[in-house]
Amino acid sequence: MRLGTRVAIVGAGPAGLALANVLQQAGIDCVVVERQSRAYVEARARAGVLEHRTVEFLNDHGLADRLLAEGARHGSCEFRHLGERFSVRYRDLTGGREHHVYPQQFLVRDLISAYLAGGGQLFFSHPAVALDGLDGDRPVLRCQPDGDAEPLELECDFVAGCDGFYGASRQAVPAGRLRAYEKQHEFGWLALLAETPPAGDEIIYALHEDGFAGHMLRTPSVTRFYLQCPVGDHPENWPDQRIWSALHRRLGMTDAELAPGPITEKNVLDMRSFVVEPMQYGRLFLAGDAAHIITPAGGKGMNLALADAEELATRLLAHYRGAGTHALDGYSAACLPRIWQAQEFSHWMLHLLHSPAAGQDDSAFLHRLQLSRLTQLRDSPAYSTMFSDSYVGSSGRPTAH
Ligand code: APR
């Protein structure tokens, strides 16, 4: 089957779906293709923290009703070390900016239903396998569905590559046209989802000689936890009993404070940071994880993906309203400062939280630096205000062209 559209969007994650909704609302024809089934993407648990500006963007487009009704609002987080605890009240320190906690898969579900309710075209189980003619006037996106289904060809004005780190879009750019900046971190995170109510209503970051432990909020009955582990560790090395005892020890909690429950997900994360520059080539624009990967420290990934979507949507709208191609030319340059600021913050936070690998010559020195950062965060209003501003994210939104 061959179809024509204005914007072909590869990937139905937060970036691709937000872009599709905004374009649809503006009457700009678009088509979304997604490798996985609808059931799969609506059940895939990943991030869950939405910044103030992200919620504002979604709300401006009528896409935040459910998250505002069901998501929890948070304005402080807690740090723990050697039995000492303190909170940073980032809502108070930033004039009222706060987080909404709402699991990514719920947002994906909301964005899919809004887009389909508006008559949007979305092909699930249609992996993009080739993007041709990106440097011409009418690129063609080719999808090869599983089984006997007919291949799909989408002829379009522009391709939005929102297909994550392992997607086809970035791979379609000729060698040498994009530059990748990459950092592989020297520790892993065991990422867990447990059917356990959170132990309190704050995100908790615990520094411990065994390694970092994180207590993240998702829903009243589901909690995400992270445990620092060595690079290359395997989930099989972490039976449930070992997990709960590590969580209790590192977080300084008893069984009564944090009740063990069924662990429904257990992965060792590849702790990698990655940015590609520029985020565009010819008529292809990369957004979200297709262009950059950030560690979960600081909860920035989904917010960056949605900020890219907003930036790209704003510029596509300007283009179709007659502003010319210069609106699109500036896409990458407009996104990258925000992305690097988030990368810098996430990197700083990783080094605040992680126990330096034992045996490293400089581990005792690095640990002293960590403690100094923690003390400043507790005692210095200027330091904690700066932390809060980065943590909860800026309030800057793209301007119309
Ligand atoms: N063709 C079509 N779809 C594809 C292809 C392909 N070749 N390859 C990947 N996809 C789909 C994936 O199945 C996924 O649904 O693209 C989508 C990309 O979505 P995400 O990975 O969620 O990426 P993004 O929208 O950029 O959102 C980033 O996701 O990884 C988390 O923590 C990260 O919160 C951040 C957010």
Oligomer: single chain
Q: Do you know the CATH architecture of the largest domain?
A: 3-Layer(bba) Sandwich
Query: How confident overall, as mean pLDDT?
Result: 95
Ligands in the model, by name, code or SMILES, are: adenosine-5-diphosphoribose
Poorly predicted runs: none
Decide which structural class fits the backbone. alpha/beta
How does the overall form come out from the CA principal axes? globular
Total beta strands: 23
Tally of distinct domains: 2
For this structure, the CATH topology of the largest domain is FAD/NAD(P)-binding domain
Give the class-level CATH name of the largest domain.
Alpha Beta
Q: Which strand order spans the largest sheet, edge to edge or round the barrel? A: 7-6-16-17-18-15-19
**How many helical elements?**
12
Strand content: 15-25%
Which percent bin holds the helix content?
A: 25-40%
Question: Rg, please?
Answer: 22 Å
User: Major beta sheet, specifics?
Assistant: 7 strands, mixed
What distinguishing features does this structure have?
2 domains, D-Amino Acid Oxidase, Chain A, domain 2, 12 helices, alpha/beta, six-stranded mixed beta sheet, 401 residues, seven-stranded mixed beta sheet, binds adenosine-5-diphosphoribose
Explain this structure to me?
The chain is α/β, with parallel strands linked by helices. The chain has two domains: 2-48 and 103-183 and 272-349, FAD/NAD(P)-binding domain, CATH 3.50.50.60; 188-270, D-Amino Acid Oxidase, subunit A, domain 2 (D-Amino Acid Oxidase, Chain A, domain 2, 2-Layer Sandwich), CATH 3.30.9.10. It is built from twelve helices and 23 strands. The strands form five sheets. A seven-stranded mixed beta sheet has the order 7-6-16-17-18-15-19, with helices on both faces. The chain has a six-stranded mixed beta sheet with strand order 9-3-2-13-22-21, with helices on one face. Strand 6 and strand 7 (84-88) form a beta hairpin. Helix 1 (14-25) packs parallel to helix 6, helix 8 packs antiparallel against helix 10 and helix 11 crosses helix 12. The mean pLDDT is 95. The structure holds adenosine-5-diphosphoribose.
